[in-house]
Amino acid sequence: MKLKGKVAIVTGSTSGMGRATAELFAREGAKVVVTGRNEARAKEVVDKIKAEGNEAIYVTADMLKMDDVKKIFDVTMETYGTVDILFNNAGMLSITPLQEISLEEWENTFRVNVTAPMYLTQLCAPVMKEKGKGVIINTGSVAGAHAHHGPAAYCSSKHAIGGLTKSMAYELGPEIRANAILPGAIMTAMVDSVGGEAAVAHLKEDSPLKRVGYPDDIANVALFLATDESSFINGQLIRVDGGIDI
Ligand SMILES: NC(=O)c1ccc[n+]([C@@H]2O[C@H](COP(=O)([O-])OP(=O)(O)OC[C@H]3O[C@@H](n4cnc5c(N)ncnc54)[C@H](OP(=O)(O)O)[C@@H]3O)[C@@H](O)[C@H]2O)c1
After folding, report:
1. What pLDDT does residue 203 have?
2. Residue 245, in any domain of the structure
3. Which residue has the least CA distance to atom 25 on ligand 1?
4. CATH assignment of the domain containing 208
5. Is the CB of 16 within 6 Å of ligand 1?
6. pTM
7. Which atom of ligand 1 is nearest the CA belonging to 185?
8. Range of the domain at 179
9. Which of 59, 144, 148, 72 is nearest to 109 (CA)?
10. Helix, strand, coil fractions of the chain, as percent rounded to 5
């Protein structure tokens, strides 16, 4: 087992790629902290992990609220006494064009996609530094590498998490490595909310692999980044997108 004895926080793990990663990390021996706003789905994920004979707890938290973000750290420390891996994966999609977006929607998008990962990292990093080792993985997006018409706040926030990842790598080493995964079109509730596979059909057609991605495509890369198999990879923004826009 690749993560035996490790404690991993996976934010936004009630669904999609976070859920797939939480389940994979648990199968690899990690004690996993599942988070999200939806308690029923959080419980379902933890029940499944436990039914497979593995270990997890859930913490309900809204990443718009920094008290909730702190609660994730506090409950993790109270329950497991440490943290080794932080996967800042929870994300908020905004598709409102620049000229129409309210300040509230803009700020909420940055709060969930950038501020919450920064704050949770601030809380977890001293524990990792003290024990001499830790891994942070952030979720960016291909929208953090290119702009398209429409999602100005999402695109900007995902560019920002790229910069934050590089700052983390500089400031938190040598004990902590920080990298970001930039998913392409991955079939999750988020893609369903904007029209599902039909809405991303053009991306599929443009892709050299002629397919969309699935949550396990991301979970497998997160596992690689969480282990020493990637021990010399740091500060990188790793696209997992089937090769679109190359
Ligand atoms: N799917 C794609 O094609 C794609 C592409 C590029 C990047 N991404 C990024 O990948 C990450 C995961 O998204 P996904 O595709 O797996 O979507 P998803 O299935 O909709 O999952 C999103 C997760 O984030 C949580 N979340 C959302 N807003 C939250 C909030 N305010 N507070 C707490 N948790 C919140 C959700 O939990 P609750 O609903 O329980 O709160 C859920 O667990 C996001 O950062 C997203 O931006 C996705």
Report:
1. 85
2. no
3. 12
4. 3.40.50.720
5. yes
6. 0.98
7. 3
8. 7-237
9. 144
10. 50, 15, 35
